[in-house]
Amino acid sequence: MLSSALPLFIAVLFCSRTHAFTAGESEAQEVADLKLAPTANDRLNLLNPDSNFVFNFTAARTGGGAAGVVVTASAGNFPAVVGQHLSMAVGFLGPCGLVTPHTHPRATEFNYAINGSMTVGMLTENGARFVSNTVNAGEAVIFPEGSIHFEMNLGCDSMIFVAGLNNEDPGVNSISQEYFGLPPDVVAASLGNATAEQVAQIEAQIVDNVALGTDECLQRCGITRTKQSTTQRVQRVASNALPSGFSGPPAPPASTAAPAGVKLAGSLADDASNSSTKLRTLDIVLIAVVGALALGYVAILISYCARRGKQNKNGGNKGIYTRPGAAYAPGGGDDSEKFMAPGEAAPFESFQPYSEGGARTTPYDAPSGAL
Ligand SMILES: *[C@@H]1O[C@H](CO)[C@@H](O)[C@H](O)[C@H]1NC(C)=O
Ligand SMILES: *[C@@H]1O[C@H](CO)[C@@H](O)[C@H](O)[C@H]1NC(C)=O
Ligand SMILES: *[C@@H]1O[C@H](CO)[C@@H](O)[C@H](O)[C@H]1NC(C)=O
Ligand SMILES: *[C@@H]1O[C@H](CO)[C@@H](O)[C@H](O)[C@H]1NC(C)=O
């Protein structure tokens, strides 16, 4: 009884879990649940309550560099975009703030200046000319997928841009940070006659995005270029290590946490309670129980086969199968075949149940005095 009720219970448990995210469930698990959902309606039910459809860019406006931050709402921090094929970035640029040159490996960007003006530029691919523009409030510029591009606030006041990206996981490849994160001797060779030490010295100075912009802008706005943080550089492993003895600041350790300045909307941003951990534990226990049951069934099967083998040995492999017909069975027989040892009077009379204690397991009653 238990063994038949348990799978049902487990099924109910798993089904109930699909109705909404569990509080504190990991971002990756939520996105995985959404991607596995068979229909859009199933995704809608997972995104419960309604606030899961709203992303607060203002609340997520932390981190970044000395001159601002770009906040992106994408599959990495906003599960509602899963299945929608787009994401959105909002740039909060301080005076002269430069979004350092970068590409989006999986998306074209359509960037709209809310207020203020920005100078932008891009290189779409080898052989393409450099394209440059000034984009004023109320205008938008397009950066094709994969193009190297930058945006810089031309003004001495802060400004905001909003960019649509046609992929829920657009990705960013920051050119300076990534290029100088390659093996220093390879970078040195690609620069001609540079040394790995020179490369390492430059690499150690690569500032975080959004960075202070050009000298022209800073001077115009009366801004001094202060020392900026350099935490976005590539993590070093053995195969791209800096020259031994290099005394520059080490790149920060790789972080497994969500990008800084990124928060979830609605209930997804709520407490990281331990309920999901508990649920996971329950799942594991249930899986163990089911596994034990399966092992039990296997044990029963092995036991059955062992007895069967023993009987074969005793009664002989000379045993025959007979069909106990109506002639032998008062009240009607059945058509199933029964194993019978040779030389026994009648199939019905001589039937030996395998189970101990001699209880009959045939579907008909034994005649009185039988056995
Ligand atoms: C968005 O976040 C900001 C900062 O946390 C907060 O002041 C504001 O009330 C939030 N907006 C809404 C609509 O909740
Ligand atoms: C743009 O909007 C932001 C936020 O309201 C404001 O702080 C900033 O001063 C504005 N910039 C310009 C150039 O109007
Ligand atoms: C390369 O640089 C070294 C100094 O670092 C210099 O002595 C050498 O002449 C340079 N070679 C070429 C081909 O420029
Ligand atoms: C979750 O559990 C761990 C260890 O059991 C504990 O250290 C942590 O504070 C808990 N987190 C919350 C949010 O309760």
Question: In terms of topology, how is this protein built?
Answer:
Layout: H1 2-17, H2 27-36, H3 40-46, E1 68-73, E2 87-93, E3 97-103, E4 109-115, E5 117-123, E6 131-136, E7 140-143, E8 148-153, E9 159-165, E10 173-174, H4 175-179, H5 184-190, H6 196-203, E11 211-212, H7 215-221, H8 275-315, E12 320-322, E13 338-340, H9 347-350
Antiparallel strand pairs: 1-2, 2-9, 3-8, 3-10, 3-11, 4-7, 4-9, 5-6, 5-8, 12-13
Bound molecules: 2-acetamido-2-deoxy-beta-D-glucopyranose (4 copies).
Describe this entry's structure for a reader.
Residues 313-371 are annotated as: Disordered. This protein has 371 residues and is of the alpha+beta class. Among the domains are: 23-52, no CATH class; 56-221, Jelly Rolls (Sandwich). It contains nine helices and 13 strands. Strands 3, 5, 6, 8, 10 and 11 form a six-stranded antiparallel beta sheet that branches. It has a five-stranded antiparallel beta sheet with strand order 1-2-9-4-7, with no helix packed on it. The longest helix is centred in the C-terminal third of the chain and has 41 residues, at 275-315. The two termini are 32 Å apart. Residues 8-19, 256-278 and 315-371 have low confidence and may be disordered. The structure holds 2-acetamido-2-deoxy-beta-D-glucopyranose (4 copies). Residues 272-274 line the site of one 2-acetamido-2-deoxy-beta-D-glucopyranose.
